[in-house]
Amino acid sequence: MELVIDRLTKQFQNKIAVDRVSLRLHSGVFGLLGANGAGKTTLMRMLCGILQPTSGTITFDGMDVSEEDYRAILGYLPQDFGYYPEFTAMDFLLYMAALKGLSKQSAKRRANELLELVGLQDMGRKKIKTFSGGMKQRLGIAQALLNNPKLLILDEPTAGLDPKERVRFRNLIGQLGKDSIVLLSTHIVSDIEHIADEVLMMKDGNLIYNGTWDEQMGDLESFYLAQFEEGSHE
Amino acid sequence: MNNLFTMYGYELKKLVQKKLLWVSLLVCMAAIAFSILFPLLGTYSANGVPISTNYEQHLIDQAHRKALSGKPIDQSLLEETLAAYKDLPIETNYVLTEEYQTYARPYSEIFNLIRVWTGMDKQAVVQWVPDEATLYATMMGRFEESSINNHLTEAEIAYWQGQADTITTPIVYQFHEAYRCILENFLIVGFMMLLFTAIALSSSFPDEHTHRTDQLMLCTANGKRRLYWVKLFAGITVGFVGALLMTALTWLLCLCIYGSEGFDTSMQIFYTNYAGNITIGKACLIAYGCLLVTAFLISIFVMFLSELFHSSIAAIAITAAMILAGALVQPPAEYRILGQIWDYLPTCFLAMWNTFDIRLVSLFGTHFTSYQIVPLIYVVVASLLAFLGRRIYCRRQISGR
To answer: Does some domain include residue A78?
Structure first.
């Protein structure tokens, strides 16, 4: 399993949001760090095929990002997770399962499994508009996992979760990283420290760090903040 | 089927869960019902004096018309009619006189037909010496007059002449009030259908944008091409069912109030300047068939606009502007082709005079009437818009949030 990102660039008029990023990712959890506007979300959107790169390519095991087969192995939780307020949680998951190509039977089974996994098993018949922010976020995580994705992209997945839920979510991501490529972005450095196998750090559209991080290298948060400091002196 | 039916079910659910859809449908249905029932409501006044209710007057007229039903409009009926009207006072306010109520009123329907077929005013008809041959010759002459006013070509005039020659005279009068009611309300049903479709479907695509669910959909296996077609068909279903409900309500009310008699009545009894040899019942079926095809086009058109502009307001505004322009603007008759194209736009076509337009479209040496060719054009245009919309939808980019 290999995700290949080759000289990926996205330019919006005068601003280069992502600048010739190249990466090869294998199964594991990859933590993407970066300040606001560093290009994390733009990179993730391009990886999901919902934003066309200005140049460069993205392939997963030889499948191009524009192919339907690529989308079939993809799970995505956007930063600004959208939902249908009048749908129940179960309806929402069954609808997303249909979009992901799951059969009716496996969709139902998987939806029930995931509702239990994210602690919403009693809320399946409740309309999403009645959910708290944390519950919506958990539902978002559930929909991303419906098709057992080989490539899971999570944009700030722990936002809105309480500490208990965050711990549960970290454990879940750790499990998923054994068989899939999980790329998650967050501002919470401790999340990355706990679950990421590798750290990717972006600044001004460039990948400034790519590799493992261990305690001997010092405190990740201090290193991360130092990048901000440098940015503010520029 | 790659979950197409499941997706279709959920897309329909998204549309019908909107309160605005039900409110607009109810308002449109209420407006249609009111338009049909309005002539029967309220007080009937003559010379400013309330006499009875409109419903009572309707029952009287209905009885007179039923008494005339089945009679050919021949020399004998013309003479009876003129004899009944001969003692009518000259005064303008003759309605309450016994001469009118007892003798003339039972023949008022035939009297009015003579007026419109010949173009004479009331006084001229009263003094006219009834003659069946003159009546039908004048009626045919008025078809020709209408042809000239509409700048028809020689070939078109010959076509309509051929049609008129097949009309059997004397024309038989039949009680046909239900079909008259159905055709008289065609314009309002068409208007309501356009309004409902614009309101109900304008948010189908933009809602995904505003709810930010588009980014979830577009990165799923079925979320591009398949979902686009499913969304489109769900929208078409809503537009079509809305039009069907409005049609059903119109037919049901008219048939319940007036009965089903008169399906085979000659169209010339109702649409007096029309030379086509069709019955009024068939005309009703054609008109409402055209309405359903228009609902198909307008559903796709509204969804296309909403996807193009990513805005339901823009789709509603453009459709509303087109409805208003269709009602208020009419190109001068001398610009024949421009006028014809304008009248074939969906916002103009659903008027009876355009559905049964005497201007023809000539293709490969064959003449087609508007109700034959326009629905075909609509299907072609709708298909083009659908494919163009797919292109826009599949190329949608998620950025700048």
So the answer is: yes
According to DSSP, residue A100 is labeled T
Q: Are A96 and B239 in contact (CB under 8 A)?
A: no
Of B7, B211, B399, the CB nearest to A51: B399
Q: Which residue range forms the structural domain that includes residue A126?
A: 69-151
The ipTM (two decimal places) reads: 0.91
**Any domain includes A106:** yes
A194: its two tokens: 């706990």
B219 contacts on A by Cβ (under 8 Å): 48-50, 71, 74, 76
Contact A72 B399 (CB under 8 A): no
Which residue on chain A is closest to B13 by alpha carbon? A87
Overall residue count recorded for chain A in this entry: 234
User: Which residues of chain A have a CB within 8 Å of the CB of B218?
Assistant: 48-50
A94 within domain boundaries? yes
- CATH number of the domain at A133, please: 3.40.50.300
Give the span between the Cα atoms of A142 and A77, in whole angstroms. Answer: 9
Partners of residue B3 in chain A, C-beta under 8 Å? 98-99, 101-104
Name, in order, each residue with C-beta under 8 angstroms of B351's C-beta and a sequence gap of 6 or more. B186, B187, B190
B249, B121, B87: which is closest to B181 by C-alpha? B249
Q: How far lies B150's CA from each of B147, B273, B333, B350, B390, in Å?
A: 5, 12, 7, 19, 40
Q: Which two tokens stand for residue B103?
A: 């003798």
Inside any domain, residue A195: no
> What is the least distance, in Å, from the CA of B188 to any CA of chain A?
33
Q: Is A150 helix (H, G, I), strand (E, B) or coil?
A: coil
Q: Can you list the pairs that B149-155 forms with residues at least 24 positions away whose Cβ atoms lie under 8 Å?
A: B149/B333, B150/B333, B150/B336, B150/B358, B150/B359, B151/B333, B151/B334, B151/B336, B152/B358, B152/B359, B152/B360, B155/B362, B155/B367
> B45 CA to chain A: closest CA distance, Å?
52
Q: What is the pLDDT along chain B (401 residues), one digit of tens a residue?
A: 668 999 999 999 999 999 999 999 999 999 999 999 999 999 988 777 888 999 999 999 999 999 999 999 999 999 999 999 887 777 667 777 888 888 899 999 999 999 999 989 888 998 899 999 999 999 888 888 888 888 888 999 999 999 988 999 999 999 999 999 999 999 999 999 999 999 999 999 999 999 999 999 999 999 999 999 999 999 999 999 999 999 999 999 999 999 999 999 999 999 988 889 999 999 999 999 999 999 999 999 999 999 999 999 999 999 999 989 988 888 887 788 899 999 999 989 999 999 999 999 998 889 999 999 999 999 999 999 999 999 999 998 988 66
User: What is the total count of domains within chain A?
Assistant: 1
Pairing between strand A63-64 and A206-211? unpaired
Does the distance separating the beta carbons of B221 and A68 come in below 8 Å?
yes
In degrees rounded to 5, what are phi and psi of residue B110? -70, -40
CB contact under 8 A, A99 and B227: yes
A78–B215 C-beta distance less than 8 A: yes
